[in-house]
Specification:
CATH superfamily of the largest domain: Tetratricopeptide repeat domain
Order of helices and strands: HHHHHHHHHHHHHHHH
CATH class of the largest domain: Mainly Alpha
Strand content: under 5%
Oligomer: single chain
Largest sheet: none
Number of strands: 0
CATH architecture of the largest domain: Alpha Horseshoe
Length: 346
């Protein structure tokens, strides 16, 4: 009995290690794709599939091959993936999309019908079954790595008049903006999880074309999630841009505390200490004495560090001293760090 339990434990451990290796490969592969290093990403996926195959790895590899219009290679990967995961909705949807791209619309219809037999509410399959049946022209999507730009031209990264990366328009009435925002969110519901570029594009459209709708604030937050958590390494520059836009455009937003907390973390990560100091000054004006000692000490220590980084040493030292006083002789981590900061100046 003990031997059986040990074997089961070893099997579980092996599976966990494989899953972790697969997740790391997906993260690294996406980072390479973001850097337009498509060949390196493909090689990474192929190596990882030999060592620790997973549904996500098959999906990422086939999706990238589709973007590069290497449809036959994508189909080979998908066939192997579906042998291992025959009921994978993501792999089946991607297989149907590749068939559509190759002009094999009857085959695509058959695959999307199979998806709907497994998941009758799958919006992606519904959309593409209708497209395959109607014979409408191909919409641009994730199979084209440059779909968001005109061929040969860089993406539009110009800024608005106020310096924001988001060019807000009120060409539509408030009701029209809400109607468009709902439509764009319905399009997002039809996307697969691997269609990151499409999610980003649609959220940007909500932010820029529907600023009077409540969905615009939501899209700012969701877009910051995509830049922070959907990419490896995180795209801190765009996290900052969208959250600064959120705070400027919607100063009374319910997302205010979360947005400012996230900005603090990202400012700290990117060394933007002047902006970090400004946020901490505002935070302590709003909540000068948090009842929880730990909360106060963490905030005060980080505020002191930011002040020191911009050369406001005397103010930094005053905050370090407040950390030590709030510790009240308990010798907690924050207090020790504050003491080290003060000692380092002597």
């Amino acid at each position: 009995m003990k031997i059986v339990k040990m074997l089961l434990l070893l099997v579980c451990l092996f599976c966990c290690m494989q899953a972790h290796a697969s997740e790391e490969a997906v993260k690294k592969g996406r980072a390479l794709q973001n850097a337009k290093k498509f060949d390196e990403a493909l090689q990474l996926y192929k190596t990882a599939l030999k060592e620790s195959p997973s549904e996500d790895l098959y999906t990422e590899a086939a999706s990238l091959l589709g973007k590069l219009q290497k449809y036959d290679n994508a189909e080979t990967i998908l066939s192997k993936g579906l042998e291992a995961y025959p009921k994978s909705i993501s792999l089946l949807n991607l297989q149907g999309l590749i068939k559509f791209r190759k002009g094999e619309k009857d085959a695509a219809k058959s695959i999307f019908e199979k998806v709907l037999s497994l998941d009758s509410n799958n919006s992606f399959a519904k959309k593409w079954l209708e497209t395959s049946t109607s014979g409408n022209p191909m919409p641009m999507d994730e199979t084209d790595p440059e779909s968001a730009t005109t061929e040969g031209e860089p993406a539009d990264t110009s800024t608005s008049d106020d310096g924001s990366m988001y060019k807000v328009s009120n060409a539509l009435s408030k009701d029209e903006q809400l109607e468009l925002a709902v439509k764009l969110y319905q399009e997002m519901m039809a996307l697969e999880k691997w269609e990151l570029d499409q999610f980003i594009s649609l959220h940007r459209q909500v932010i820029e074309k529907c600023p009077l709708s409540h969905k615009a604030e939501e899209s700012c937050w969701r877009l910051s999630n995509l830049y922070l958590l959907g990419q490896d390494p995180p795209d801190f520059e765009n996290v900052i841009a969208v959250l600064e836009h959120l705070l400027k455009q919607y100063p009374e937003t319910e997302l205010l505390p979360d947005a400012k907390n996230r900005l603090m973390v990202v400012y700290q990560q990117t060394g933007q200490n002047e902006k970090l100091v400004a946020l901490y000054e505002e935070l302590f004006r709003r909540d000068p004495e948090p009842a929880d000692d730990k909360t106060f000490m963490v905030r005060a220590l980080e505020f002191g560090n930011a002040l020191a980084a911009v050369g406001r040493t005397a103010e930094a030292n005053a905050w370090y001293q407040k950390v030590i006083e709030r510790d009240n002789g308990k010798d907690q981590l924050e207090s020790r760090a504050a003491k080290d900061k003060l000692a380092g100046q002597n």
